[in-house]
Design brief:
mainly alpha; 2 helices
């Protein structure tokens, strides 16, 4: 299980945002979106050769 988002194998196991106040919740949601955005691009040989 991921300690940051609470998901395991695509399922939500723990609601990590449940006990946070509004300010902390917004910050945590931004962190989760940033992590998901970084995971979307799989590394390929073509992508690595462009760098």
């Amino acid at each position: 299980m991921c300690q940051n988002c609470g998901y395991y194998k695509g399922r939500m196991v723990v609601d990590v945002l449940k006990k946070l106040d509004k300010k902390e919740r917004k910050k945590k949601e931004k962190e989760i979106k940033a992590q998901e955005k970084g995971k979307e691009k799989p590394l390929t040989m073509e992508g690595l050769s462009n760098k």
